[in-house]
Amino acid sequence: MAASTALLSIAPPQFNSTAKSKVTRKPPFCSCSLDSSNSATISSTVSEERDNTPKKFTYTRASPSSRWPHLKFTDTHQSSQPSPLSVAVPSVKDVEFDSGNDGNVGCYEGRGMEKGEESLNSNGFQLNDETQEVLGRPSRTRAKKMTKLALKRAKDWRQRVQFLTDKILGLKSEEFVADVLDEKMVQMTPTDFCFVVKWVGQSSWQRALEVYEWLNLRNWYSPNARMLATILAVLGKANQEALAVEIFMRAEQSIGNTVQVYNSMMGVYARNGRFSRVQQLLELMHERGLEPDLVSFNTLINARLKSGPMTPNLAIELLDEVRSSGTQPDIITYNTLISACSRESNVEEAVKVFNDMESHRCQPDLWTYNAMISVFGRCGMDGEAARLFNELEANGFYPDAVTYNSLLHAFARQGNIEKVKEICEEMVNMGFGKDEMTYNTIIDMYGKQGRHDLALQVYNDMTSSGRSPDVITYTILIDSLGKDNKMAEASKVMSEMLNAGIKPTVRTYSALICGYAKAGKRVDAEDMFDCMVRSGIHPDHLAYTVMLDMNLRFGETKKAMLLYHDMVRNGFTPDLALYEFMLRSLGRANEEENIQIVIKDLKELGNLGPQSISSLLIKGECYDFAAKMLKLVIEEGSEFNHDDLLSILGSYSSSGKISEAIELLNFVKEHDSRSMSKKLITDASIIINCKAQNLNAALDEYRETGDSYTFSISVYESLIKCCEQAELFAEASQIFSDMRAKGVKPSQDICGIITVIYCKMGFPETAHYLIDQVEANGMLLGDISFHVSLIEAYGKLKIVEKAESVVATIEHRYGVVGRTAYNALIQAYALSGFYEKARAVFNTMMRNGPSPTVDTINNLMQALIVDGRLNELYVLIQELQDMGFKISKSSILLMLEAFAQAGNVFEVKKIYHGMRAAGYLPTMHLYRVIIGLLSRTKQVRDAEAMLSEMEEAGFKPDLSIWNSMLKLYTRIEDFKKTVHIYQRIQEAGLKPDLDTYNTLIIMYCRDRRPHDLFC
């Protein structure tokens, strides 16, 4: 008794969800009895709790003749309907389908209860001798051979039960069961009526309940314990928990006080995962003097596993508790645990249970192997699944359809198409053929690979082969098409599903809503959401999350808040990432009232404290509210996150709220003398100054206290970024050195910034060494731009060998060299005048990609220019044009400027006129280059004509052009025009520079009027 009571102490699973769900409310544990108060407690709880268990999928291969067709089995009796095989509905996340194995796992969950129901003949019920003779005494090893009389009576028993069952199920909706039973067409025993209730209940629980109530009203056959257990099992399978509780409560104690009745009622609760209710009934059995049997404990285990996620080592603990109660776990116990592990993809726990099973000499059956293959497949261990499949055959078991589907799922999950085809072929050869689960698995595999044409082809094959697609099939197709933005095809599949008479589930709607939201079709997503609600389907967490996120992204904050309130009312809450996005959106819309509502829900629904809420508000950029929550933390005397304080202060400073920042700093200083220090104040002050672009003040404070202690990483990062923006590269380098000397590990972002700074300072070797150090410590900068900066810096210093080594490093690490890296290398070659090397890189780009750009061509031309091979420019341009390149304006200007610097007036004029003829208009820079050239070569008329053309085109000559004209007239000693040009400079409001005055001095000296310089 004490040992079994210990099992009752197993706590229900603790959920981290912050939702106030109507379906997952945990009832308080209490000692249960059949007095009025406890009856009210159980009844009221049941009335409040509603089952949302998905409709079970009927699997046509539950009978032996279907599962092993090659063994030529024949069914011993005809069932009124196929055995149901429940398939676990796939996870809500991304509407991901897990096929193949759920048929095995789901069905086994109820076997512990069904065994108890079937054992009513021999465990605890007083069957008369006639019944024992008719049914035969059960044997575990061989079939009992009955006499001819017993065989006739058994046949008469089945005929009687089947006759009444057919009559009752053949009634019209307006007819009553009493119309059949009152006629007393056949003589029935109490056992016969039990089977009538059971057989009728397989097709209609309402009619079965009518039979039960008729027996009560007529009081002809007082319902005994077996009848009560039977009707409870029927109602439990039909998810009619409230009716089952009512019947159980009103049953007389003499009838209901048996282990089997309690097991049946526990089974009703266990189907819906009501672990606490099962615990109460087990405790009530102890109070009534009943000793729970193995079925009781199996049912309790099943309820616990259905009530929530498994905790570490839970399965072994449950097995130990069963043994401590004086009972040994059986095959049903082990299979129930392994099936639960399979549902949760918990391979470690499943292996522990399997090993425990073997160590206690409990032989695994086919169900065990199927469940283990399933869990290995779910966890991506297809090799282990295949090993178990081979072990299964070696141990004398014949694989059934579930086995093959589980193995198929294992390889399909890994995307192993060849192996999937091989298994399908073996299935067909063994006589199974492909069923709905097989097709669903293959469709899901192709859908996840984005091969939607093959998925649709398999779907068409499925329908043409006579298999009927179910809701899972359609949901998989809709989900995969939606993820690939093929919403027209997804909508078509939805229409086919509706035309086939299959009702969409919440996951079907959620998949379609996700697809519309991803495609940016807000109206279609809203219509589908409204359609789901109108059809009576309650949205799940995914549907709410997608709709809420979409409305927020479109700025529909009012709609988002209405949806949020509805979401909370239905027991769901957003995750923290969505809460962060909500707060950011509401903050930008200045909806402070709604922000207060969200903060309240975070406290009450999320059970978050002020510190956690403050951090979330900071991420959501609601800094004023974050400051209020941070003040609450400080007033409570709790330790607060210093980074949160610095983030708030940084936001205040960047937005110009310096007074708010100072007020918050003073508040912290006054109320937290215990943990507040000068260091934190200094850190905050430096960061505020950096955010406010008061770099000098920040540097002064840093220098005053820098040697006394180590700053936080936020301070160093703020200073380095601010110095980099102000181009104070030496200061940034010094701060970085201080940071490393103090043992503060720089972030990836800071290492990248310092690398660029070293390159700009002309120290590429130092930058290169830093990158090597960072990568040696396992931190990849992750951006090729830093390597490009190295190449450019090496090129400017004409260290091309180092630049080449950086390119080789890029190719080795990333597998491909990008266009920017190639362009930087060609530029490095150009600066050194290595045209052949630059051309080799250009040819590599033409051959392997990426294609060259204008910068590539300009760098290639620059290599010829630096090498003094101007005459070859025309050859290069002709080659480029033959390759299909169009010469850009920048390339023409580059060539013109090169000839201008060489003093080749003829080529410059030719290029200029050709450019004008091609439709390229001159620029200010072009006029500046040409006039400068004409001035140096004393081409007076051409220079004056170019100046006039420039002014007619609307350009105003700048000081550089006027200086060129001054020099021109001074060179030809036309001093009057020189003075006139100077007057034009003054009239234009331009301020003469040193070049202007030097030219004037030369002019006056040559004109022998030096005294006029001082006038």
TrEMBL record:
Entry keywords, A to Z: Repeat
InterPro entries hit by this protein: PPR_rpt, TPR-like_helical_dom_sf
Repeat positions for PPR: 258-292, 293-329, 330-364, 365-399, 400-434, 435-469, 470-504, 505-539, 540-574, 712-746, 818-852, 923-957, 958-992
Pfam families assigned to the protein according to its UniProt record, in alphabetical order: PPR (PF01535), PPR_2 (PF13041), PPR_3 (PF13812)
Annotated stretches, region: Disordered: 42-63
This protein's record includes keyword Transmembrane: no
NCBIfam families per the UniProt record, alphabetical: PPR (TIGR00756)
Family named by the database record: Belongs to the PPR family. P subfamily.
Protein's recorded name: Putative pentatricopeptide repeat-containing protein, chloroplastic-like
Organism taxonomic ancestry: Eukaryota, Viridiplantae, Streptophyta, Embryophyta, Tracheophyta
